[in-house]
Predict the 3D structure of the following.
Amino acid sequence: GSLDPALADLVQRREATFGASSVLFYQEPLHIVRAEGVFMYDADGNRYLDTYNNVVQVGHCHPRVVEAIAKQAATLNTNTRYLYDNIHEYAERLLETYPASLSNVVFTCTGSEANDIALRLAKLFTGGRGFVVTENAYHGNTAAVSEVSPASFKGRALPPHVRALPAPDPYRDPTDELGERFADQIEEAIGELEEEGIPFAGFIADSIFSSDGIYADPPGFLEHAIEVVHNAGGLFIGDEVQPGFGRTGSHMWGFQRHGLTPDIVTMGKPMGNGFPVAGVVTRPEILQPFCDETGYFNTFGGNPVAAAAGLAVLDVLEEEGLLENAEKIGSYFRQALDAMQQLNPCIGDVRGAGLFIGIEFSKPGTTDPDPAMATAVINAMKEEGVLIGAAGADGNILKLRPPLCLETEHVDFFLESLFDVLQRQSS
Ligand code: PMP
C-alpha cells in the first residue's frame, strides 16, 4: 500500500539528503518519537515492545544514565588529553569485570573503531597479517574491518589475507565434537593462509556468533579453537560488541561462558546505553608496540560524558541485578518458545543464552531456511506492537536482544503476539 503522507514526506527528505545511504527498517518505516524502558512510541502514539535494540541494555532513557550524561555535559566535556576524574574511575571499574591479565583499555566511539585497533594490535604484535573469521560475521565499517566482515561483501570474494569459515551450527550439523571440528577448520584456514605466504595474525569472532545465526552452545566449545589459534602464533580477538555487558545472562562477557580469555576484547553498542562509547581491552605487551609505532590518540573516545554514561550503565547493571534478570527471564522466554516450537513445525530451532535469543524458521520437516516466513513474521509482529530483527546469511533467524530489564509480562505479550501471527500465517 501507499505510505501515509507525513511518513512519505520524511522518507523523501531522508532519501534526498542521505541518498543511497538511507537505511530504514520495515517496508513502512517507523517514525519513533520517544522511548522508555522496554517500549518505543511512534508519532501516532502506538507502543512497541523493543526486542530488537541491543544498544539500550538497561532500558530506553534510563533516568540514571540520562541524569549522569546531562550533569556531566553541564560540568565538563573536552577532548581527552587532560586529567579528569571520572575516566579513571570508569576504566578501573570496567577492567574489574575482566580477567586480571587484560589490564589495559583504550576508549573509542564505535565498535568499528575498536575492531580496527584490534586488527592493528594483532598485526603489530604477531608480525602477521592474515585473519580468520566466520562466513557471515560483521565486525564494523572501516576499510580494514570491512575486510573481515563477510556480511558486508554480499557474495563478492574476500581479500586474500582473510579466510572465512562456517560458524559452528549444531542445528544443521549435530555433533558431540562441535568445538573440535570448528578448531580443525580454523587450523586448515591458517594453513591455507601460510601456504600463500600470508603469516597468520589472528582469529576474530564474537562468542555467540551474532550475525552468523546465534550459536551459543555448548558452553566451552570455543576452547579448542583458541588453542589452535595460539599454537599457530595468532591472537584471539573476542568481539563483545553484541554479547557483552551481561547480554548472555550468566556472565558479564560472552567469552566467559566458554571459560576462556581472549588476547584482545572489543566492546561497544550497550556500553553507554546509546551514548557513543566503545573500547578495546588487552594486555599491556600487546598495546605497547602499537602505541610506540602510531602515537594513537582519539579526540572523543572516553571523553567525560562518555565516561559518565559508561559508569551509570555499570551502576544500573549491578544495582538492578540485570545479569540475573537476563538469565532468569531469558530461560523463561526460551522454555516458552520451545513449547511453541512443538506446536509450530515452521519453527526449526530456538536457541541462545540469557536475553540473546534466536528463533530459526525452516521449511517444515527440514532444516532448509525459510526467510520468507521470517520476513512475514517480523512485519506482522510490528503490527502487533513488537519489534524484532533477523540474523543469518539467509535472514531466516529472528534475533531477539531486548533491554535486560525485560519482565515476564513483556515476554507473555511477545508470546501471545507470536502465537497469533503464526496462527494467521498457517491459516
Ligand atoms: N561488532 C559487532 C559484532 C557488531 O554487531 C557491530 C555493529 N553491528 C560492530 C562490531 C560495529 O560497531 P559500530 O556500529 O558501533 O561501529
About this structure: The first strand starts at residue 32 and ends at 36. Residues 154 and 393 are 9 Å apart (CA to CA).
